[in-house]
Each structure stands twice: as C-alpha cells, then as structure tokens.
Amino acid sequence: MRFRLLSNDRPGHPVATLLVVLLFLALATAPFAFPGTRSVAVASRICVFIVLAASYDMLLGYTGIVSFAHTMFFAFGAYGVAIPLARGGVGGGAILLGGAAGVALAAMVSALIALLSLRVQKIFFSMITLAVASFAQILATQLRDLTGGEDGLTFSLPAILGPGFRLLREPVLGVRIDGRLITYYLVFAVALALFLFMLRVVNSPFGRVLQAIRENEFRAEALGYRVTVYRTLASALSASIAAVAGGLLALLLRYVGPDATLSFSIMVDILLMVVIGGMGTLYGPALGAAMIVLAQYYLQPALQNAADATAGLPLLPALFHPDRWLLWLGTLFILIVYFFPAGVVGTLRRRGR
C-alpha cells in the first residue's frame, strides 16, 4: 500500500532510493530552500526535462526504439501553447486549447511515422526520424507568419502566472507568493503527475508487452502480440507526454524558438540523461536530467571558483578555466559509464538484486 503511487516500482537500491527522495524533496521545496530567481529557474527546468527524458525512456529503455525526433514533439507542445498566446489569446483557455492541439499533433505525427517506418531496420528508422526532425526545424525557421521564424515567439501569460500577481501580501518563510511561484508549482505538479502516470504505464500489462518486444520482438510476435501496433501506441504516448513537457517549457520561458526546442543539442542532452541515469528505469532519467541541468547551470561558476582558488599554481588555473566545462562534463560522463555501465539506477538495481 505504501508504494501504490509508485506502482510498486521502487528504485531498487537504498542509495538510488535516497537520491530519488532527495531530488523530490529538493524540487518540492526549491523556492523556499533555495530562494532566488536563478535557483527556481533551474528547478523548473529540471522538472521539464525529467518529464522529457522519462518519456524518451519509454521509447528507448522500455520499447527499444531509437528515435531522434523527440525534440520535434517537444516543440509541437511548446508552439501549441505559444502560438495562440502570441496571436492575442488570453486566459487559461488559450493555453489548454493550444496545448491540447500540440499534444494531438504530436500523437498523430508520431503514430504516422511509426506506422510507415517501424517495419524497417532499427538504424534506418532512426535515420528517418532524424530526417523528419531536421525537416521540422527548417519549417519552424521558414514559416515566419506562424512560428516567428528564427526569432521565435514572445508572449504574455495570464495575470495569475505573471510576476506582478500577489496571492498574499506578506511573504511566507521569506518568499513572496506571486505568479512566478504559482507557475513553478504548476509545472512541478504536472511533472510529478506525468511521472507517476508513466510509472503506471510501464508497470501495466501494456508496459510488460513493450519490454517483451524490446527483449525479443519475434518471440512477442509469435505469442500473438502485434508488435507494430504496440510500438505505434508507445510512440504516440511518448510523443504526447513530450509535447506536454514542451508546453510547460513555454510557460516558464514565455518564449518559444527553434533553438529553445528543436536544437539537436537538446536531443543529445536527452540521450545523455537517459544513458547516465539508466535506461528502462524512469528513475534513472529523472536523476540524469537533474545532473545534466545542474551541470549546465553551475559547472562553469564552480570551475571559475576553482580557477580563482588555484591562481598561484601552475597549469591548474588553465585546467579549471570555465570555458573547459564541456571537457569536465565529458570526463564525468566517461566516469559514470565506466563505473555504472547500466547507468546510475540501472547498475544500483543490479547490485541490489
């Protein structure tokens, strides 16, 4: 009964459990435990990328589908929210209607790609998804009247989500209860609900079939499961959740553009999150998302502090130069892959067994 919300799918190791609990508590209390605009922005981004990485893990880790079009579905949700607001739409109705349109488009396009392409060999399917994602990025930059082109779209949110809104006159624990705080907890609540939903899906009979297809699709087909249908449904579901994550990012940034949603570097980040955390675990991509986002925001300042502290020593200041943060991130990735070959949560689960 204690783990029904987690669908009885626990992290599987005391250390992994501790990390997941600490991540949850940090995100749940971020505006109060880590006050400041920057820390709340980092926590918000972690929430969004937890949903995005976990939805990709449903494809890669649980179904065995390697797709490079996940950022396209992410962008569908972001533009779905941004377009009506940038065109004069107001209120939560415009957000919900635009977001629903983005989710529906993502599900339909994903299902269409899957039906037309999943019968080919895996590497060729991956190349098809990469080509489709590149085509979507070109469209986003060319359809200026709709998407704003390379400049993107800037828009305003309803007053309750704006920084000028005050729910309470007096601060609570030193934090103002304003529109930014409401936006953060809206994103946090949606991200938590989606994560619990994905846990339910992968631990359902449907999720067990997906894992059987991943392990041996020919055997699953021989047992009577229509592999293409299950893969298509998994693709559509994963794309829909990615679109919701895109809508959440649009609410946080109040801006949507090709670089913010369709960049291939975002796809690389998603892959790193899933691989570092552990494929086929959901908890792993959540931890991986937190690690990558924290590194993107805080690794450079940390290196600057290290360079300042070692200013009188030879070589070390140059080694710790902030411009070399990608070198350190790559080193961290290599160490994690070496010591945790199945990802952090995946390796800890194996040791726990």
Can you tell me about this structure?
It is a single chain. This protein is mostly helical and 353 residues long. The chain has a single domain (14-352), classed as ABC transporter involved in vitamin B12 uptake, BtuC. The protein has helices spanning 14-28, 30-33, 37-60, 70-86, 91-117, 122-142, 144-147, 179-202, 205-215, 217-222, 227-253, 258-261, 264-277, 283-309, 316-319, 325-339, 344-352, and strands at residues 153-154, 255-256. The two termini are 22 Å apart.
Structure keywords:
mainly alpha, 2 strands, 353 residues, 17 helices, ABC transporter involved in vitamin B12 uptake, BtuC, two-stranded antiparallel sheet
Q: Could you give the topology of this structure?
A:
Elements: H1 14-28, H2 30-33, H3 37-60, H4 70-86, H5 91-117, H6 122-142, H7 144-147, E1 153-154, H8 179-202, H9 205-215, H10 217-222, H11 227-253, E2 255-256, H12 258-261, H13 264-277, H14 283-309, H15 316-319, H16 325-339, H17 344-352
Antiparallel strand pairs: 1-2
